[in-house]
Specification:
The chain has 354 residues and is an alpha+beta fold. The chain contains nine helices and eleven strands. The two termini are 33 Å apart.
């Protein structure tokens, strides 16, 4: 296992794959697009995966004879401006970030039928979400190294004014054979906020995955790097305990907890963890963002300390805002909270742990 994102060990990339195979070592499914050439350059070899809005194919870049992943908007979403804009925003965000822990975008355009597509580097691996659904947890040292890489990739995004807004296990790609990850790349910037873009949903809808979202994001207030830090803290909790901090089938209870309840110490669920790990999770997931880490660099420094690569882990921070409870800072946030209270019975309840 390497020491971190600047390790000399490279991820499995295009040049490492078997060029003699028509699928370059991937295991795609047959597709009606197989054999088709997109933009006169990318020949589809098979279907890899699908999401809610797009399909991903393995293809050969006929100009370089290397594999690429082509993400094409689903046919039923292609006519809709919201989803077209989201794919182009994702491409713009990813192309603005040059970092080894962020997947690289090669090209973007439209098929002959007018369907938007994005071409990315092809990487062998699985998502962190897939790994956790199969394995439950990740050993502490491995988890900390992967979290450092995730934080480094997200820090690079923050430096160019991009907030991911959907930090969760399914949006981290683990590099290496299944079960033996040695690296990580941040993927799927489809919900990213760019400095020039509106920071909230144009429809007023919540964008993201509620289980991992910071309180300000739930109330569609402006987000910044600290919103991604909150989400990464929840990911850390999930990696080390096998559980989410708030597990409930009731959306009402989930929203209430995300807005007002402190994340419990991960050591409550995994006795092998100590107060240093608890401190990192606490400092990442404070409800009031002024009480969280202010940057991913601070997160990385404390992860290094837990790994024994640096000094001492900062103790759980004395909150600058007391009590550490979320309160809307905008009229829009107050309106959203009132709407949640009316519709779901979500009322403020201050809870503090640690």
């Amino acid at each position: 296992m390497p020491e971190g994102p600047d390790s000399e060990r490279r991820p499995i990339a295009a040049g490492d794959l078997d060029r003699r195979s028509p699928t370059f070592g991937f295991s795609p499914k047959e597709s009606t697009r197989s054999g088709a050439v997109i933009a006169g350059r990318y020949q589809v070899r098979g279907f890899l995966d699908r999401g809610a809005t797009a399909r991903v194919y393995i293809a050969e870049d006929l100009a370089t004879h290397t594999p690429v992943a082509v993400k094409i908007l689903a046919a039923d979403k292609a006519p809709l401006l919201e989803f077209r804009s989201r794919l182009y925003r994702e491409a713009e965000a990813m192309r603005s970030i040059d970092h080894p822990n962020v997947v690289r975008v090669i090209d973007v355009g439209e098929t002959a039928e007018g369907v938007p597509y994005m071409v990315m580097e092809a990487l062998l691996g699985e998502s962190l979400g897939e790994y956790l659904r199969r394995q439950g947890t990740i050993p502490l040292d491995t988890a900390l190294i992967l979290l450092k890489q995730a934080a480094a990739g997200l820090a690079a995004a923050h430096r160019v004014g991009v907030v991911h807004r959907d930090v969760k296990p399914d949006n981290f790609l683990l590099l290496g054979p299944p079960g033996e990850p040695y690296g990580l790349k941040v993927i799927d910037f489809g919900l990213a906020k760019l400095d020039a873009a509106n920071s909230t949903s144009t429809t007023g809808n919540i964008l993201g995955t509620a289980e991992y979202m910071a309180p300000e994001q739930i109330l569609v207030e402006a987000v910044d790097a600290r919103s991604d830090i909150y989400s990464l803290g929840v990911v850390m909790f999930r990696m080390l305990t096998g559980h989410l901090p708030f597990e409930t089938a009731a959306q009402t209870d989930l929203l209430r907890h995300q807005l007002f309840s402190s994340v419990p110490p991960p050591s409550w669920l995994n006795e092998a963890l100590d107060e240093r790990v608890d401190a990192v999770v606490f400092s990442a997931t404070r409800k009031h963002r002024e009480n969280r880490y202010s940057s991913m660099a601070e997160v990385i420094a404390d992860l290094d300390a837990v790994l024994g690569l640096a000094g001492q882990v900062s103790p759980p921070r004395t909150p600058q805002v007391i009590p550490d409870a979320f309160a809307p800072s905008t009229e829009r946030g107050r309106e959203a909270l009132a709407l949640l209270a009316e519709k779901f019975g979500v009322h403020a309840r201050v809870s503090s742990v640690g």
